[in-house]
Amino acid sequence: QVQLVESGGGLVQTGGSLRLSCAASGTIFSIIAMGWYCQAPGKQRELVAAITSNGITNYADSVKGRFTISSDNAKSTVYLQMNSLKPEDTAVYYCNALIRDRNYRSNAYWGQGTQVTVSS
Q1: Residues ≥6 apart with Cβ < 8 Å to 87
Q2: What pLDDT, in 10s, does the model give residues 100-118?
């Protein structure tokens, strides 16, 4: 089994910054990709940013130029640096990991979510 533990959410003013962290632990053969999704009240969960094990990144258009995703493969950890935050970034942010087990099966895992609130 795999666990994802997130940290770094909180309350910040418009224009401020936050850094989210997500550490994966458990039975991990290899990590294919990790990413962050957000879900605002009444809306569907959507991709914010993702990074593959070889460093290829993908961002939602709404965060390009403001958010940066990075990873530390040795620590099985992914980070999301969020700058120039806007009230519309307010949401619960979920870490996601696509992980391959020793039988070469891939499974997706989710963290418990961390609240990010941006005040105007």
Answers
A1: 14, 118, 119, 120
A2: 988 989 999 999 999 999 9
